[in-house]
Specification:
Blueprint lengths: L4 E6 L8 E7 L2 H6 L11 E11 L12 E6 L5 E8 L13 E8 L2 H4 L9 E3 L1
Parallel strand pairs: 2-3
Antiparallel strand pairs: 1-2, 1-7, 3-6, 4-5, 4-6
């Protein structure tokens, strides 16, 4: 695997503006691998999948051992959709009907616990 970039995401429109460390998946190899085979992830971390343009993004949880929330982001870093509590080890494809340039995966329950919702903007640093 090629090295992965790192950065930060700030949820600037959420109560308290929480901030998490992220790994940034921009290559096809990292898009395919994602968080597979990890058995835990710290509460204040996530993985951001990025593409140069918007499109319908479909994800599955093949070999992904931790349940996740998935935040779909437009090119302007606005949340266009959220999938909460996506179960681990599930090959069912999951998507939202809105085009996205990024998908942020965080631990299941994070979005609800921090008041994060569609329509809010994020600040991506990386």
């Amino acid at each position: 695997m090629p090295p992965i970039d790192h950065g930060w995401v700030s949820f600037v429109d959420a109560p308290g503006a929480p901030r998490i460390a992220i790994e940034i998946a921009t290559t096809p190899a990292w898009h395919e691998r994602g968080l597979m085979y990890r058995t835990s992830m710290p509460e204040d971390q996530g993985m951001l999948f990025s593409w140069p343009s918007e499109g319908i993004r479909s994800f599955w949880m093949h070999n992904t051992c931790i349940p996740l929330d998935m935040l779909y982001l437009g090119q302007d870093d606005t949340i266009v959709g959220v999938l909460e509590e996506v179960p681990a080890m599930d090959d069912t494809p999951r998507a939202v009907p809105c085009p996205a340039a990024h998908v942020l995966e965080v631990n299941a329950g994070y979005t609800r616990a921090h008041g994060i919702a569609p329509g809010q903007k994020l600040k991506i640093e990386g």
